[in-house]
C-alpha cells in the first residue's frame, strides 16, 4: 500500500496514523482514543474535569507517579470513541490545547489501543 499524503500528512499525527495502517490497523473502525492533559495542581485538573463533564465528555483523572521533574502531575484523559481521521484528530488536539490552557494545564497528546493480540491455546 502506498501512503496517501492527503490522508496521512507528513507530521506527527499523519505519521502515527500511517504507522497504525502499516501495522494492520483498520481506521474505518472506531477506536477509543484518549486525549491527555497535564496539570500541576489537583484543583486545576478538577475544574477542567468538571467543565468537560458539563460538555458530556467521558473522562478519567489520576495523579501521575513522580514525573521527570520530581512533581506528581495530575493527568486528565478524555475518552472519545471515534473513527481516526487526520483532521478530526487535529481539531480535537486544538480544542483540548485551548481547554487545558484555560485551566492552567497543558495538552499532553493522544493515544489508543491499536493492537489486538490473539493468544493460542496450548495443545495437549
Automatic annotation (TrEMBL):
Gene3D superfamilies hit by this protein: RraB-like
All residue ranges annotated as the Regulator of ribonuclease activity B domain in the record: 11-112
Signal peptide: none
InterPro entries according to UniProt: RraB-like_sf, RraB_dom
Pfam family, one: RraB
This protein's name: Regulator of ribonuclease activity B domain-containing protein
Amino acid at each position: 500500500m502506498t501512503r496517501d499524503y492527503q490522508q496521512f500528512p507528513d507530521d506527527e499525527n499523519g505519521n502515527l496514523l500511517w504507522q497504525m495502517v502499516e501495522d494492520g490497523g483498520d481506521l474505518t473502525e472506531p477506536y477509543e482514543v484518549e486525549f491527555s492533559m497535564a496539570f500541576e495542581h489537583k484543583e486545576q485538573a478538577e475544574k477542567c474535569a468538571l467543565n468537560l463533564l458539563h460538555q458530556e465528555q467521558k473522562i478519567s483523572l489520576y495523579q501521575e507517579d513522580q514525573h521527570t521533574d520530581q512533581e506528581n502531575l495530575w493527568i486528565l484523559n478524555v475518552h472519545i470513541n471515534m473513527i481516526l481521521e487526520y483532521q478530526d484528530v487535529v481539531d480535537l488536539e486544538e480544542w483540548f490545547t485551548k481547554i487545558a490552557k484555560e485551566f492552567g494545564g497543558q495538552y499532553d497528546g493522544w493515544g489508543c489501543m491499536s493492537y489486538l493480540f490473539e493468544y493460542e491455546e496450548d495443545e495437549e
